[in-house]
Fold Bifunctional NAD(P)H-hydrate repair enzyme.
Amino acid sequence: MQPVLNIEDVKCVEVALTREGVSVSELMHRAGYAAAQETIALGDVENVVVLVGLGNNGGDGWVAAEALFARGVNVKVVTPLEPDQISGDLARQVAQSAVKAGVSPLVGPSRDELEDLLSTADAVLDCMLGTGFHGEVRAPFDIWIECVNASGARAISVDVPSGLSAQTGRAAQACVVADMTVTMLSLKPGLLADDGRDVCGSIVVAPLAEQTEHLVVEADPVAWRTDLSDYLDVIPAPTQAVDKFTRGSVLVVGGSRRFPGAAIMAARAAARMGAGYVTLATPASVAAIAQAHLLEIPVVPLPEDADGVLSADGKDVVLKLARGVSAVLVGSGMRISGGTVALVSALIEQDVPLVVDADGLNCLARLTDGALPDFPEVTRRNAPLVLTPHRRELGRLVGQAKTPPDSLVDALEDARKIVWSDGGSNLAIVAKGSATGCVGVDQALLPKPGPCALATAGSGDVLAGMMVSALAQGSGQGGDLTLMAAYVCEVHGYAGSLAAERLGSRAVMATDVIDVIGLAADAVGEHVMFPEGVEEA
Ligand SMILES: NC(=O)C1=CN([C@@H]2O[C@H](COP(=O)(O)OP(=O)(O)OC[C@H]3O[C@@H](n4cnc5c(N)ncnc54)[C@H](O)[C@@H]3O)[C@@H](O)[C@H]2O)[C@@H](O)CC1
Ligand SMILES: Nc1ncnc2c1ncn2[C@@H]1O[C@H](COP(=O)(O)OP(=O)(O)O)[C@@H](O)[C@H]1O
Ligand SMILES: [K+]
């Protein structure tokens, strides 16, 4: 796993390193060398343009330029100001040193001059704005960024692509789209989520000092990016000595006359993820449609109200069915009513591993008056509970319906409000988004996200079905629930990639993802077991 640090904590690591004898100047030199090294490693770099800003990110650029020059690279530094005019002491010193060593600066070029220069470059080193950037990009960097993106040269961003917030993952209107980002000390959340996924290219972490590893861990990472090898403990051990029930039995409670498909897809996804026996309990008026779509899955008709929404009259049947299975999913396509709130509440009180998704979460929000963290007794139970909200659902759970989290870090923080008030290891929250965070009481995990093809109606229902299936098969129980959740997200993401490969990135529908869950799970499993033997998933 790789630690991900909030920006303010990266700064704390910087301070801790200086206390351990590694000065900021030394760090800047190592950062510059690391950037130069990675640039050379790209191969075929004879002409490099280094665009520098006026802060320490620019300082890294001047050091990199001097290092590249010393390696015989034809390097030109583009700067808004003469080195002597740079106000920051450190940045000015490294700029003066680079010029003294023979690096030639181009000060305040016109757009045409810059475009001409970039047209001759094999690579551009982007050292304009780093973690000190905020707001919209001001001149001249907005224009420089446009020129970089329009040039054909490979762009290597130092620490963070200029224009991206390394904390929130939001890009300004002008933002470098890099081929590679060499980031200092540790991963930052904004590099991994939202716009960050579009603009960072491949990410290389430069630790800069041998003490960094332990200092980063001590700085309390906001999350950990998982590696495939981390999932070894949550993949069900292969055995032939099973029957359809011991392979995991699942009950899906959901669907409504308005949305019958969500529960059908969830049930199907649960079977495709490996549960041996799946049952769907759904309103009576949609049971026949559901059964027609689910030949292998028994469908139990439940009492419903005039709108075709599950009614509280079905509670006893649902609880009886729940007692007979290894795990339950409630919520898919269920709608919010007095009846569905009562069902969700009854299932949470039942001692069975449970996944709550979609309207099940909205029922939970209603049950707790939009303040789930204030009612920890609701989620505190003996059996595992996994909540799978997207950002709007998460907002409703924590009293922020009108202002749901709009960054990964905000979503992690909201999820933490819930798991920390609960305080136990039997609760995991899967905060879904373009990058998904799986949050438990001890840590938050960031599985590798799938492609944007997953942003399609029903893809969350598929994930919920997969989640309950993994739970039913015993993954995570008595072990690490958060890691199990991350593993399921990883398989979901990979299934999205497989479906996109087969059908085209724009064509994927949720049912296509269901069809390849098994292949995705096998492929991820193989990578986990034999990391050296196969290409990365
Ligand atoms: N944290 C660390 O331990 C290390 C940090 N280093 C570098 O230092 C960087 C942070 O340095 P700084 O704090 O000086 O910040 P930056 O260099 O990222 O940015 C500060 C400069 O950008 C300007 N600026 C801010 N917002 C702007 C906007 N919207 N439009 C135009 N200009 C804007 C400021 O006026 C200032 O000149 C990191 O990103 C990294 O590259 C490295 O030198 C080594 C180690
Ligand atoms: N841009 C994206 N890139 C990768 N995955 C995405 C993206 N957008 C959504 N997803 C994933 O797709 C799923 C969507 O779930 P959800 O919003 O609940 O959809 P629905 O309610 O339609 O089923 C989540 O697993 C989410 O992480
Ligand atoms: K940068």
Residues 57, 126-130, 157-160, 162 surround potassium ion (ligand 3) (CB under 6 Å).
